[in-house]
Amino acid sequence: MTWLDLPEDSVFGLANLPYGVFSRPGQEPRVGIAVGSSVLDVGTLAEAAGAAFAPVLWGPSLNPFLAAGRETWSLVREKVTEWLSDEAHRDLVTPHLVPLAEVQLHLPFEVADYVDFYSNEHHAVNAGTIFRLADDATDALTPNWKHLPIGYHGRAGTVVVSGTPIVRPSGQRKPRNEEKPTYGPSLRLDIEAEVGFVVGTPSKLGEQVGVGAFEDHVFGVCLVNDWSARDIQAWEYQPLGPFLGKSFATSVSPWIVPLEALQHARVAPPPQDPEPLPYLLGDTHWGLDLGMEIRVNGHVVSRPPFATQYWTAAQQLAHLTVNGASLRTGDLYASGTVSGPEKDQRGSLLELSWGGREPFDLPDGSQRTFLEDGDEVIITATAPGPDGARIGFGEVAGRVVPAVTEEK
Ligand SMILES: O=C(O)/C=C/C(=O)CC(=O)CC(=O)O
Ligand SMILES: [Ca+2]
Ligand SMILES: [Mg+2]
């Protein structure tokens, strides 16, 4: 129940309460919580209410709040729920609600380290088939795939918030049938629909964070678009993995949905065969039933389901730290491209166009293999909440703008 005038089906209802950073024209960015079509200026509200936790909500980023840890995350959530539910707080809270339409949303946290996994079996089989079976590989999955969540370290400094224009990257690329590489703007610019996990509580160098400690460290979830230049990637990636083909920009949604809001979205992960090594086992990890949607220029091109992800977020974190690598507040790790078994559930254009060989139609009559300048991609998602409510993740959007460099 709430005294707020919220539509029943709002994906930003009281069951959600995702955190972001907003500003009003001429004012400094600060922490906010999305509720209905408003942003709750939670830092100033907490101050007005005399809450002891108020200072962690004052900054221009979520990092102090993320660093405050699990007890504080729960306490603030409980308090905000009370403020928005109990009519007695109406006069206290109302002045701190700002219409969403009047604010600018910013990168919600300072990204410390960024890791991208490769944990969706449908995607890995598709990508392996397209990238490697065409050459000399005998299996679409590499021999290690079912033994560990494969990942690579990405570029934290180029993580940008939804809405940031994406400049078409330039670089080296060498088509299979050509002898030498050439330089120029990527001709195979792509997206990857992913789910991001945001670390709050750090760990010490040399310490492992086991599967069961996931919820002590990870605060919440966002959406990620791991923009990928397939021609640059295909030429550069062996043997060390993705480099410039993915480091030019990674977009995230402006709202971080707390794990606490996703209790009803938990699902059993798919069976894992062969059984993983003990450090990747535990009975406290789960998948999340997120239904994602990818739109290109307003047209839905795919609906990837996250529920069948092979490796869970807790296993990814356990693997990421099994060598003693420490976590920092603001670390972001992404699930890997989310694809389902069906054609219209594929999480990248690489898969939707089968390596560029099968152009697909947009309802406006045009066709695509990869992205053209001016194309806008928007990824959204929702998950089940309590009592039939839906939990919204907002959107991660980006429009492609022409390359800045001329052909050399
Ligand atoms: O299979 C490959 O060589 C490459 C795969 C990717 O580009 C995907 C990647 O970034 C990891 C992922 O998002 O699943
Ligand atoms: Ca990726
Ligand atoms: Mg990227």
Automatic annotation (TrEMBL):
Residues 15-108 form the Fumarylacetoacetase N-terminal domain. Substrate binds at residues 118, 132, 233, 237, 337. It holds the Pfam family FAA_hydrolase_N. GO terms for biological process: homogentisate catabolic process; L-phenylalanine catabolic process; L-tyrosine catabolic process. Pathway: Amino-acid degradation; L-phenylalanine degradation; acetoacetate and fumarate from L-phenylalanine: step 6/6. GO terms for molecular function: fumarylacetoacetase activity; metal ion binding. Residues 165-184 are annotated as: Disordered. Ca(2+) binds at residues 116, 192, 194, 226. It is an enzyme of class 3 (hydrolase). Mg(2+) binds at residues 226, 246, 250. Residues 130-400 form the Fumarylacetoacetase-like C-terminal domain. The active site is at residue 123. Its cofactor is Ca(2+); Mg(2+). Its EC number is 3.7.1.2. The keyword Magnesium applies. Keywords: Calcium, Hydrolase, Magnesium, Metal-binding, Phenylalanine catabolism, Tyrosine catabolism. PANTHER family: FUMARYLACETOACETASE (PTHR43069). This is fumarylacetoacetase.
